[in-house]
């Protein structure tokens, strides 16, 4: 095999291939990646970069973990794919049992979706169908938090922050949801009664229209990397119960140990009615997400006019993805992450402390295996990424945030390199 001509490939990339939130033709040239192993990406020019983003928060066990590779390879040689309508298979059944066992008590049923955004669409459909099943078909709206991010499909966009999200661009095409301010930034302590009262007022004002409340429990991710104390999740659970609303927990970012507990809801002692998981579910091997719900939710959907949950993707419960997820969740069950996440939290806290005094730095915060440097201005993304790459680290800042969500297997030396690169990026941005 002759070496690929990267100049020609990158020219074709620019001409033909969309990148996330990108223009066409593309502006900045993306870095060509030819391989990945553990926490490292290998670029076409032979350089290696630590993947401090876990490839958008998914590769928690590192790239090409041998047990995940073996599981996918074995599945590839037996049943790579089969339709899920009218048929079933062992990887899906075992994975559903595993997720039910891992999730907060009371979530018994699993809908497999092909991406995080789709799992949010399914959650929204569930909530609307539950209302219909309870004889309240007028309840179709959802209360969401400002600063939220729930995905890029239409339903998910509609519950994402109306300003930083894409509401203005798609005005008139999105369902109109109800928004309240997110809780004040915090990691512990009681819920602010003034905030709880504010939410209660909105719930009362829209009592006949609302079906559910949707949150990213304890940490708003792509909307701004803002933590809030578990007491707010408890308070929202109580509010939902009092107002007859479902609580939807989008744990696509927070799930599988990223913030400390296995699930942020479970860590708060709360069972949501509906739970979305994705991102790290397959250890970043391929796309898979799931929407879990309680028996009460399933019963109300059964009582709705259709009598069934009205969703069913072509690649639902793809066996290769289920095999990857089984291997990834087996690694989590073995439990090394319980030591690794607090170890990474300490490493990030120590390593980022020096960035606090840099000019232009507004805040430094660490929650579980998440480290954030917030600037007082928008990040110069090309300059910041280049500074980090020159130090051997892949970072992809956004807005005013330079952050890392490293793989749980990141060693202490690599972690120190990541925090040093973030500090250099902050100085360059
Ligand atoms: C990434 C993310 C999504 C969307 O998941 P995709 O797989 O990108 O569709 C939804 N919610 C949260 C909290 C996320 O972090």
From TrEMBL:
Record-linked InterPro entries: Aminotrans_3 (IPR005814), Aminotrans_3_PPA_site (IPR049704), BioA (IPR005815), PyrdxlP-dep_Trfase (IPR015424), PyrdxlP-dep_Trfase_major (IPR015421), PyrdxlP-dep_Trfase_small (IPR015422)
Cofactor dependency: pyridoxal 5'-phosphate
Known pathway: Cofactor biosynthesis; biotin biosynthesis
PROSITE patterns in the cross-refs: AA_TRANSFER_CLASS_3
Signal peptide: none
GO molecular function: adenosylmethionine-8-amino-7-oxononanoate transaminase activity; pyridoxal phosphate binding
Coiled-coil positions: none
Pfam families attached to this UniProt entry: Aminotran_3 (PF00202)
SUPFAM superfamilies: PLP-dependent transferases (SSF53383)
GO biological process: biotin biosynthetic process
Keywords: Aminotransferase, Biotin biosynthesis, Pyridoxal phosphate, S-adenosyl-L-methionine, Transferase
Alphabetized NCBIfam families for the sequence: bioA, PRK05964.1
PANTHER family (alphabetical): ADENOSYLMETHIONINE-8-AMINO-7-OXONONANOATE AMINOTRANSFERASE (PTHR42684:SF17)
Protein's UniProt name: Unannotated protein
Natural source organism: freshwater metagenome
Organism placement in taxonomy: unclassified sequences, metagenomes, ecological metagenomes
């Amino acid at each position: 095999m002759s070496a690929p001509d990267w100049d020609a490939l990158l020219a074709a990339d620019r001409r033909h291939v969309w990148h996330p939130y990108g223009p066409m033709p593309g502006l900045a040239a993306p870095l060509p990646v030819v391989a990945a192993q553990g926490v490292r990406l290998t670029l076409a020019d032979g350089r290696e970069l630590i993947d401090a983003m876990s490839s958008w928060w998914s590769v928690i066990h590192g790239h090409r973990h041998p047990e995940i590779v073996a599981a996918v390879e074995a599945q590839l040689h037996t049943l790579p794919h089969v339709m899920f309508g009218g048929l079933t298979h062992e990887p899906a059944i075992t994975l559903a049992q595993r997720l039910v066992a891992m999730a907060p008590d009371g979530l018994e049923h699993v809908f497999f979706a092909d991406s995080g955004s789709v799992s949010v669409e399914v959650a929204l459909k569930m909530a609307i169908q539950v209302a219909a099943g309870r004889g309240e078909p007028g309840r179709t709206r959802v209360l969401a938090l400002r600063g939220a991010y729930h995905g890029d499909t239409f339903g998910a966009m509609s519950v994402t922050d109306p300003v930083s999200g894409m509401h203005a661009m798609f005005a008139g095409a999105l369902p109109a949801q109800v928004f309240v301010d997110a809780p004040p930034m915090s990691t512990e302590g009681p819920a602010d009664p003034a905030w709880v009262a504010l939410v209660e007022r909105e719930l009362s004002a829209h009592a006949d229209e609302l079906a559910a409340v949707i949150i990213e429990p304890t940490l708003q991710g792509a909307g701004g990397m803002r933590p809030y104390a578990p007491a707010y999740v408890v308070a929202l659970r109580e509010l939902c119960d009092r107002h007859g609303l479902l609580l939807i927990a989008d744990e696509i970012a927070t799930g599988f140990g990223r913030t400390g507990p296995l699930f942020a809801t479970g860590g708060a002692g709360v069972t949501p009615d509906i739970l979305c998981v994705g991102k790290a579910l397959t250890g970043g091997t391929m796309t898979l997400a799931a929407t879990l719900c309680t028996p009460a939710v399933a019963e109300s959907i059964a009582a709705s006019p259709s009598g069934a949950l009205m969703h069913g993707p072509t690649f639902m419960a793809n066996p290769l993805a289920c095999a990857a997820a089984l291997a990834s969740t087996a690694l989590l069950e073995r439990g090394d992450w319980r030591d690794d996440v607090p170890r990474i939290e300490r490493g990030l806290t120590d390593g980022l402390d020096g960035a606090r005094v840099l000019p232009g730095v507004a805040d430094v915060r660490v929650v579980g295996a998440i480290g954030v440097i917030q600037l007082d201005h928008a990040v110069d993304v090309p300059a910041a990424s280049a500074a980090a790459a020159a130090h051997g680290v892949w970072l992809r800042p956004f807005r005013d945030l330079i952050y890392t969500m490293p793989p749980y297997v990141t060693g202490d030396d690599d972690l120190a390199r990541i925090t040093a690169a973030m500090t250099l990026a902050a100085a360059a941005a």
